[in-house]
Design goal:
Layout: E1 3-11, H1 15-33, E2 36-41, H2 46-52, H3 58-65, E3 69-74, H4 90-99, E4 104-110, H5 123-126, E5 130-136, E6 140-152, E7 155-163, H6 166-182, E8 186-191, H7 197-210, E9 217-222, H8 223-232, E10 239-242, H9 244-255, E11 265-269, E12 280-284, H10 301-313, H11 318-333, H12 351-361
Parallel strand pairs: 1-2, 1-3, 3-12, 5-10, 8-9, 8-10
Antiparallel strand pairs: 4-5, 4-11, 6-7, 11-12
Helix pairs in contact: 1-10, 1-12, 6-7, 8-9, 10-11, 11-12
The chain binds nicotinamide-adenine-dinucleotide.
Amino acid sequence: MATFDILVLPGDGIGPEVTAEGVRVLQAVGERFEHVFNFEQDLVGGASIDADGVAVLPETIEKARSSSAVLFGAVGGPKWDIPTADVRPEQGLLALRSGLGLWANLRPVTAIPALLDASTLKPEVIEGVDLLVIRELTSGLYFGKPQERRVVDGRREAVDTNYYNEDEIARVAHLGFRTARERRKKLTSVDKANVMASSRLWREIVVEVSQEYPDVALEHVLVDAMTMHLIRRPRDFDVVIADNMFGDIITDEASMLTGSMGMLASASLGQLGEDGLGLGMYEPIHGSAPDIAGKGVANPLAMILTTAMLLRHSCGLEEEAQAVERAVMAVIDAGLRTPDIAATGEPSLPTREMADEVLSRLGA
Ligand code: NAD
């Protein structure tokens, strides 16, 4: 019987509503598959600002560091949305990512047949889409120095630096190849090697790492072409790796393929062991949805799919992860909907009842 310590950070808005359902799913997985999940809950984002004056306490980051995984809801809301404020809810998210050294962000995008109409793309384009984008998260353009604005000869100028070293690239490449190996054995590396030195190093290192994975097909795609391919032929992609900025852009583009924000999960991973497992922070990609917070109608499925990623990447419980994913798909196939994914006039379930439907199909 395995034991896992999960730090739960519900955050703001619908964060606590969906996180509560994620915890119930993990508890049910524990009971049905005989594992022990110990939960500890703490504050982050606006809730932490109200209680402690900061978006996350250093003690909370310490607790996260000593846990098996962090389950994160969402942060932010109008109450704290003051552009000039020194303390902002998102700082909690960034402090956790950097404090835990989470250098890879994984965002799976799978088209759900029953929800194809929710996308702005034609159903025949997105049908069968099943891809995973891995974005480098702690280096590159958002962290490189110099990053500054200055005045030179009386003229304003600004500079950002897309710094990468070979270790930072190699670890993302290894994760990409290892993940592709478990899937359809195809890796697409996105760069701008025709123009940028950092991209040429990126490509060189990815090619070097590829020697260890002869069973995985590797292709290089320039980022500008990638943005087109993603909406013209998204089915062709399996695992995609990209640096921090390119990954930022294409993960958002990829998430929109399915058109249903309440269905998408993400994982941020750091130091991984020999077995490919390690501490990770898991969150749905949606925000705190202040417009529906407190009404009990938020879609809990993104959070529930997030727990599947937690089981897979931090606990090594692949069978259990798939059981959760199957239960979610069974609920969708049964025609059950929350308001955000229901067609006009179609009946819908509130948050808790939707999660109950998933729980009743878990392990079935
Ligand atoms: P949002 O994702 O919160 O909401 C966008 C729209 O999608 C809203 O209409 C909302 O009702 C709907 N929606 C989102 N999740 C849903 C769910 N699970 N079920 C049903 N409907 C859902 O994005 P936003 O409105 O741009 O941002 C609101 C707040 O969230 C802001 O303060 C923003 O900074 C914050 N935010 C936080 C995160 C995070 O914590 N990782 C991410 C994005 C936005």
